[in-house]
């Protein structure tokens, strides 16, 4: 669905956001674009994604979760960190065999994101390179996107927030989710969860450009059978899992 809002409507919605109790420091841009960082605008040439090997992911490991909390600054507030859904570990069990898998789940950065479809203000948005984000300047906290997401990958900021990261300040009264560490990607880096898994854990996560046949992730996908969560919905997630199909 394409949403067109004129300037007057956006001003009205911005006012509504203020009334909803959003606490954003003046002058701070919550989602800076790659162009603003000098990396040039995001383009459809790239399609960023993840490949997660559940056969390597161990139940007791949470290095990816810790890395995300540290990188994005969503730890240490007035609610349990488990309430935030940037990334979480889940366990799957095959009832017929008893086999279990442990794997991280985060925003799947869908090609056809339902969170974007239902957003009344355009705050839920998708970059040309497939990364799904929330523009907290125009998020009014309606939480329609949270209801639309089949992965429970978004959460609402109820609490006052302090000591925010300059690359990802958080706003009370807004919705937030995994950004795929867009600030790192725009600086030619990799997501913090992938870096932590590679350096401190079992190297179960791979990041790269799904559109580039020469990338490591594309090469792996060409020779492995992988699964995407709720593939039946036709959302075309950018996150692939190995070992759970």
How would you sum up this structure, described in words?
- With 245 residues, the protein is of the alpha+beta class.
- The protein has one domain: Alpha-Beta Plaits (2-Layer Sandwich), CATH 3.30.70.
- Helix content is 22%, strand content 17%.
- The strands form four sheets. The chain has a three-stranded mixed beta sheet. Strands 2-3 form a two-stranded antiparallel sheet.
- The N terminus is likely disordered.
Average pLDDT: 85
What would you say the CATH architecture is? Answer: 2-Layer Sandwich
CATH uppermost class: Alpha Beta
**Estimated share of beta-strand residues:** 15-25%
What is the succession of H and E elements?
A: HEHEEHEEHEEHHEHE
Question: What is the topological layout?
Answer:
Elements: H1 7-19, E1 48-53, H2 63-72, E2 87-93, E3 100-106, H3 114-118, E4 124-126, E5 132-134, H4 144-148, E6 154-156, E7 175-177, H5 182-185, H6 192-200, E8 205-209, H7 216-223, E9 239-242
Parallel strand pairs: 1-9
Antiparallel strand pairs: 1-8, 2-3, 4-5, 6-7
Helix pairs in contact: 2-6
Care to give the gist of this entry?
It is built from 7 helices and 9 strands; from the N terminus they run H-E-H-E-E-H-E-E-H-E-E-H-H-E-H-E.
């Amino acid at each position: 669905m394409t949403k067109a809002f004129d300037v007057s409507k956006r001003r009205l919605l911005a006012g509504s956001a203020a009334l909803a109790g959003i606490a954003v420091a003046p002058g701070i841009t919550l989602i800076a674009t790659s162009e603003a960082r000098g990396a040039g605008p995001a383009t459809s040439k790239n399609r960023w994604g993840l490949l997660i090997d559940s056969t390597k992911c161990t139940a007791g490991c949470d290095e990816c979760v810790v890395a995300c909390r540290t990188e994005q600054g969503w730890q240490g507030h007035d609610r349990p960190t488990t309430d935030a859904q940037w990334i979480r570990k889940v366990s799957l069990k095959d009832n017929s065999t008893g086999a279990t898998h442990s794997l991280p789940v985060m925003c799947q950065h869908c090609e056809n994101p339902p969170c974007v479809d239902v957003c009344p203000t355009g705050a839920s948005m998708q970059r040309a390179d497939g990364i799904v984000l929330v523009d907290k300047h125009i998020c009014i906290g309606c939480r329609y996107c949270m209801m639309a997401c089949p992965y429970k990958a978004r959460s609402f900021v109820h609490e006052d927030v302090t000591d925010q990261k300059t690359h990802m300040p958080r706003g009370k009264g807004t919705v937030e989710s995994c950004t795929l560490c867009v600030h790192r990607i725009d600086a030619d880096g990799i997501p913090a969860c992938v870096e932590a898994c590679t350096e401190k854990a079992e190297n179960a996560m791979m990041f790269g450009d799904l559109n580039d046949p020469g990338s490591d992730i594309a090469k792996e996908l060409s020779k492995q059978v992988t699964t995407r969560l709720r593939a039946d919905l036709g959302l075309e997630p950018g996150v692939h899992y190995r070992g759970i199909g």
